[in-house]
Amino acid sequence: MRTSDLVRDGNGWETKWSETHFASENLEVVTEIVQTPSRSTPRMWTTVHRKAAVIIAPMTADGRFLLVRQERIPIRAAIWEMPGGQIDETREPDEKKIKETALRELHEETGYDLAPDGELVPLGYYFSSPGFTDEHGYFFLARYVERSAEHKREEGEGIIECRGFSAADVRRMIADNEIRDANTLSICARLATRGFLPLNPQS
Length: 203
What we know:
Layout: E1 14-23, E2 27-35, E3 43-50, E4 53-60, E5 65-72, E6 77-81, E7 84-86, H1 95-110, E8 112-127, E9 136-147, E10 159-165, H2 167-175, H3 182-193
Parallel strand pairs: 4-9
Antiparallel strand pairs: 1-2, 2-3, 4-7, 5-6, 5-10, 8-9
């Protein structure tokens, strides 16, 4: 079973029993009986375990954010998203691996790299859907980025295009439901609270 420093037993949580129904390179489906801190009787729950991921907000020198339009088979649509991807580790990755993955996904999905004087700003992590999965993503602001001389997109990517958008564009796209995936909405909220993406129409 994949393990994470962010999701573990302790402080009243205890896994009494578990059974794996399906396992692949990218996820596991497991039914568990878990003792929780607030209940006297353990609870049975089916959980999808997934690798940790990175979500990157690339910003160009003129203040535009790069979004990719990507085909998503489960929802039968192509939608605008911040770039991101899974971290190739079965256990919780260290800080170096997380940052390496963020820079790799930035390059592969957008064709841009961090500028020589740029910085990769950590913005914390979040859980994508804690009601059924322990999947969590690490947020980064890549400020500033520049187009790569050699872009090598990973085989099998469903990305159709990459384009830069102003803060006003992003604000409108959220309001109009053009941006509707949890990763992008969540990193936009984190960017806004940190002052990197003004969501006030007057800003």
